[in-house]
Specification:
heterodimer, A: mainly beta, 54% strand, globular, B: 4-stranded antiparallel beta sheet
Chain lengths: 112, 117
């Protein structure tokens, strides 16, 4: 089992709709969860972080965390063509390096 | 611009040559990470430093790879005797260690795209 799993997509969503991205993780000790956005040929850019169960909203983005189910998601409301990118879920691994482990990313396309 | 600088942006080399990449982290960040990313995959952890100490190396990192962070400032990643399988984007990231949530929050540089011919 991979430490962090995402559907690789591609996920295609019409402009103005809600895009829903999902991620599961294997280490129950993980405490910090992040969503990064990566445009083609660019490096990952942090867009959301979440540490407690429930929802966290920032503008059009909402991160949701359910530690019991080991599940984290990202909702993008009113999707725009500029949201077209690969979205990476990252989870901290508490042992050792305090490093982040990334999923393989979900490629999202917003269709005008 | 996150404030993390990487040089060069692109590197093309022939198989068997040595290459070295540089990373300058955000100045107040004491943790520095190297990741590698291939097409269609998420970044894979390679190694990390806290100040000048290299505290962990991934099993992915063969003996041909070496990283340094002299004086706890910039870092270099050297690959000796490059192989075609080393072709990837090499990403550097930094963070600020300390108590509290989110200290693992990483800020990435623009990356070095390595192509081994």
């Amino acid at each position: 089992q991979k430490e962090v799993e995402q559907n690789s997509g591609p996920l295609s969503v019409p402009e103005g709709a809600i895009a829903s991205l999902n991620c599961t993780y294997s280490d129950r000790g993980s405490q910090s969860f992040f969503w990064y956005r990566q445009y083609s040929g660019k490096s990952p850019e942090l867009i959301m972080s979440i540490y407690s169960n429930g929802d966290k909203e920032d503008g059009r983005f909402t991160a949701q965390l359910n530690k019991a189910s080991q599940y984290v998601s990202l909702l993008i409301r009113d999707s725009q063509p500029s949201d077209s990118a690969t979205y990476l879920c990252a989870v901290n691994i508490p042992q050792g390096a305090q490093k982040l482990v990334f999923g393989q990313g979900t490629r999202l396309t917003i269709n005008p | 611009d996150t404030g993390v600088s990487q040089d060069p942006r692109h590197k093309i080399t022939k198989r068997g040559q040595n290459v070295t990449f540089r990373c300058d982290p955000i100045s107040e960040h004491n943790r520095l990470y190297w990741y590698r990313q291939t097409l269609g995959q998420g970044p894979e952890f390679l190694t990390y430093f806290q100040n000048e100490a290299q505290l962990e190396k991934s099993r992915l990192l063969s003996d041909r790879f070496s990283a340094e962070r002299p004086k706890g400032s910039f870092s270099t990643l050297e690959i000796q005797r490059t192989e075609q399988g080393d072709s990837a984007m090499y990403l550097c990231a930094s963070s600020l260690a300390g108590p509290g949530q989110g200290r693992e929050k990483l800020f990435f540089g623009s990356g070095t795209q390595l192509s081994v011919l």
